[in-house]
Task: inverse folding
């Protein structure tokens, strides 16, 4: 890797990016901070409220419930998508015509607009006219995701697995392909079995790509809004109301700007904090 | 431990080889004596690694058989052949300690822990790794990692052969000779057959008792370093070994008489009288000297390399290199050179002819 | 065991294709058939839904709007990220690490957090309901991503390349355009693909920042589904059409996808 030289003029190169991102990030963030410490009754009249909204949000059961649902959802999909993605990457063909076929077909869900994903799964899972709904009901299981919370969760998770497992597959596959042949040859000579090869060669070599995969999946699933909103609208009841859905309900539905802003900031900080902790732990592990 | 025999081996990476160029390895039969130190020498892409992988069982030859002693192992996988291989880039299991790395091949074969411990410590000591046994293997330098790769081979009892595929590529120059003498020492101590693949003649000639020179998928000569130097069987060997390489000059053969530059030349052995094909003479620069008469040349270049000067002289379009010892003068105009008859050899279509 | 490993990806791909098949199946059915009987393939095969989309200007304008802001976003993101990524890969400067991390945090910002302030910001800037607004807003997550991916590619190019070019008398801009950019062409392609992808699939911000003139196709779908009752066939056809641009883009970059995903700090 190239050795970097000191050069403060590099700031000029970075300037366009800084300006564009700052325009998008800092001004809205300041707006949010501004709202989060004030109360309004409309007409652009604001009153100073201090940290009241933050205290309210942190003590509100509604927020706790959304956060718990969000954490459960993210935890479940990570537990399914990461091992599944790795397993699929391991069994994919290594070269030839079928590699392209697999990659193209697998990447397809990643490029479908998110509300189309929601709408597609809605049509697919509807108990009367959807293929999935019909099949499950045909097995004698009473399944209706618009009324039954368990069915709603099942469908939302299945949809996310459908939508995003391919991302893990592609990353893991790229990681696997970058392992030099000599490792597999050495393992063969050393008499290592399939499991030992996975445990001592493939898994360690995939560590970096898997870190990226888990980080991306964590961030994106924690921010999920459109797909479950289109699929279930957050229901039945509030059972699939994740953080983003709840936030939009408060901000745009009830127009409670103060609490919504305070919640936004807490939400953002949680994502940042968890990413930071995760990243630091992984890197520390690496250094040892 | 046993002798390794390759019988009529041929290999192609293509499913349906047709032409000569489709074969990465052309038909060959080679024997490797038990306990020998061999070097497999040749330029990149000549088929060295292919041949190595066929011996280790990582590749199945398209045709032919591989025998270890009196056993046909052609269809045996690599782990059943009890061989060891050190690769160009160090292969270590990053997450394991040095100790676990060395123990890995034994544990995979279900050896009991007491025996594992004994062997690992023994090999660790032999490779000067005793102090680092408890460390993570990923933290070691390149030469340390190569020692681990080697150790994983040595730790097993009675390996049939240890193969090295350009093992010093990523080692710092000043450590190369340390590791090389370590290998030499180990060969004497362990007594296992070793095959060392390289494109570097110094590495090959210092390591091996027998050097196998490959060119274009063929084995062109098997011999001791001295034989390769004094009696190259093929002009390629002459070129490739020696610095500078052998002079190869076009000549005419007329009724058993070798003619170069309009003059008859005395050669080692006889040229034979029935000659067809491209005829050349080969003479190493070490055996060319300036003389009062002989082949008239123009001197074009002279490089001082310490104890010698390498002088390049032209006769017509042919370039002749010669070594002039330090302190000896180089004649100005009207220089002549002469070839030492005992080391002047005749090649037809690249292959040496007439006596040894 | 080994013989049957191909089953795993095959079953997975079948699972991926089922909902897409169902969407296509619906799009070729009449509304009566969809609501009336359950059929695995269209009994009365019809192009009605597609014809309806291609003859209604609100529908096809939606496509044009979407493609417009996606393309603008990709161009802005890649061209702004190129010099920045070069700076991060080649130079040390005051605050470089913090800046890089700050950029990446914007990739972690939930769009739901920014929806309302964005609406106010772009209204104040007189950009509301223009493709440019959406393109700039998507820069929030695409620019950091582009910098991240490009930096990975650029760090793989030895610094000697730059130095040789200067010795040969190239000025910086000429070197960057004539030598450096062609060297990392694959990286630029992969980056553009990711910018395209994330801008194309995002809807929350796109919907918030548009009302009539610049409304994206995906938002028009949502409106149709909610206002005109249950026109599932039309919805399915529109959805099926949104898959096509993505499919075309994937086809072109298929050989680079795996590589692009593995970049960054890998």
Result:
């Amino acid at each position: 890797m190239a050795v970097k030289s000191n050069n403060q003029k590099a700031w000029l190169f970075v300037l366009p990016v800084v300006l564009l991102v700052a325009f998008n990030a800092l001004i809205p963030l300041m707006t949010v901070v501004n709202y989060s410490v004030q109360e309004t009754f409309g007409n652009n009249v604001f009153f100073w409220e201090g940290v009241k909204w933050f205290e309210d949000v942190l003590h509100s059961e509604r927020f706790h419930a959304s956060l718990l649902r969000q954490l459960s959802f993210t935890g479940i999909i990570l537990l399914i998508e990461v091992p599944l993605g790795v397993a699929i990457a391991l069994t994919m063909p290594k070269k030839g015509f079928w590699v392209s076929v697999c990659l193209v077909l697998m990447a397809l869900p990643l490029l479908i607009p998110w509300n189309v994903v929601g709408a597609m799964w809605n049509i697919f899972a509807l108990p009367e006219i959807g293929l999935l709904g019909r099949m499950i009901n045909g097995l004698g299981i009473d399944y209706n995701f618009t009324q039954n919370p368990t069915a709603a969760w099942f469908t939302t998770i299945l949809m996310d697995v459908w939508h995003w497992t391919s991302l893990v597959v592609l990353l893991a596959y790229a990681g696997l392909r970058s392992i030099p042949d000599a490792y597999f040859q050495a393992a063969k000579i050393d008499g290592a079995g399939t499991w030992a090869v996975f445990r001592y060669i493939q898994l360690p070599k995939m560590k970096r790509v898997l870190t990226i995969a888990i980080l991306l999946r964590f961030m994106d699933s924690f921010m999920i809004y459109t797909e479950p909103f289109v699929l279930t609208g957050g229901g039945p009841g509030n059972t699939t109301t994740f953080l983003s859905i709840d936030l939009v309900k408060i901000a745009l539905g009830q127009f409670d700007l103060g609490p919504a802003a305070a919640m936004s900031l807490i939400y953002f900080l949680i994502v940042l904090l968890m990413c930071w902790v995760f990243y630091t732990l992984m890197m520390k592990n690496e250094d040892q | 431990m046993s002798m390794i025999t390759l019988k009529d081996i041929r290999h192609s990476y293509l499913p349906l080889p047709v032409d000569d160029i489709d074969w990465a390895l052309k038909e060959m039969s080679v024997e490797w004596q038990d306990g020998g130190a061999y070097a497999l020498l040749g330029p990149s892409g000549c088929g060295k690694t292919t041949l190595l992988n066929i011996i280790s069982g990582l590749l199945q030859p398209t045709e032919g058989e591989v025998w270890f002693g009196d056993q046909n192992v052609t269809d045996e996988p690599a782990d059943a052949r009890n061989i060891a291989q050190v690769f160009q880039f160090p292969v270590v299991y990053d997450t394991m300690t040095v100790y676990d790395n060395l123990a890995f091949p034994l544990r995979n074969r279900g050896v009991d822990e007491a025996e594992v411990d004994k062997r690992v410590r023994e090999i660790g000591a032999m490779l000067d790794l005793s102090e680092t046994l408890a460390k993570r293997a990923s933290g070691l330098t390149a030469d340390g990692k190569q020692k681990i790769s080697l150790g994983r081979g040595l730790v097993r009892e009675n390996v049939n052969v240890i193969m090295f595929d350009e093992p010093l590529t990523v080692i710092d120059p000043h450590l190369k000779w340390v590791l090389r003498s370590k290998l030499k020492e180990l060969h004497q101590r362990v007594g296992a057959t070793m095959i060392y693949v390289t494109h570097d003649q110094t590495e090959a000639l210092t390591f091996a008792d027998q050097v196998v020179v490959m060119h274009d998928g063929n084995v062109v000569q098997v011999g001791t370093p001295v034989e390769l130097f004094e009696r190259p069987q093929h002009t390629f060997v002459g070129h490739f070994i020696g610095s500078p390489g052998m002079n190869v000059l076009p000549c005419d053969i007329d009724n058993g008489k070798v003619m170069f530059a309009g003059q008859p030349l005395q050669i080692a052995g006889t040229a034979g009288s029935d000659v067809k094909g491209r005829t050349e003479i080969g003479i190493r620069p070490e055996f060319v000297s300036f003389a009062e008469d002989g082949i008239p040349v123009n001197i074009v270049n002279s490089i001082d390399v310490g104890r010698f000067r390498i002088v390049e002289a032209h006769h017509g379009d042919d370039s002749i290199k010669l070594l002039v010892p330090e302190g000896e003068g180089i004649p100005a105009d009207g220089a002549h050179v002469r070839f030492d008859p005992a080391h002047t050899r005749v090649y037809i279509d690249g292959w040496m002819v007439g006596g040894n | 065991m080994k013989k049957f490993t191909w089953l795993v990806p095959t079953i997975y791909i079948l699972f991926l294709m089922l909902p897409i098949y169902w969407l296509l199946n619906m799009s070729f059915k009449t509304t009566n058939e969809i609501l009336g009987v359950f059929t695995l393939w269209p009994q009365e095969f019809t192009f009605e839904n597609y014809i309806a989309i291609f003859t209604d200007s609100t529908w096809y304008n939606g496509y044009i709007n979407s493609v417009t802001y996606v393309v603008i976003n990709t161009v802005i993101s890649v061209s702004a990220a190129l010099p920045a990524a070069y700076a991060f890969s080649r130079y040390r400067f005051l605050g470089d690490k913090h800046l890089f991390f700050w950029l990446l945090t914007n990739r972690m910002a939930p769009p739901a957090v920014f929806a309302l302030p964005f609406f106010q910001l772009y209204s104040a800037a007189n950009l509301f309901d223009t493709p440019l607004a959406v393109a700039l807003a998507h820069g929030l997550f695409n620019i950091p991503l582009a910098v991240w991916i490009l930096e990975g590619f650029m760090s793989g190019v030895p610094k000697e390349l730059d130095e040789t070019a200067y010795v040969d008398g190239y000025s910086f801009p000429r070197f960057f355009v004539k030598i450096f950019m062609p060297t990392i062409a694959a990286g630029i392609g992969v980056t553009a693909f990711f910018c395209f992808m994330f801008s194309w699939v995002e809807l929350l911000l796109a919907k918030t920042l548009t009302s009539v003139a610049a409304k994206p196709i995906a938002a028009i779908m949502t409106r149709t589904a909610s206002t005109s009752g249950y026109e599932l066939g039309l919805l399915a056809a529109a959805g099926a059409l949104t898959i096509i641009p993505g499919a075309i883009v994937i086809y072109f970059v298929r050989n680079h996808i795996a590589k692009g995903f593995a970049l960054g700090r890998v």
Notes: Chain B has a mean pLDDT of 87. Chains B and C do not touch (no CB pair under 8 Å). Chain B has two domains: 4-236, 247-353.
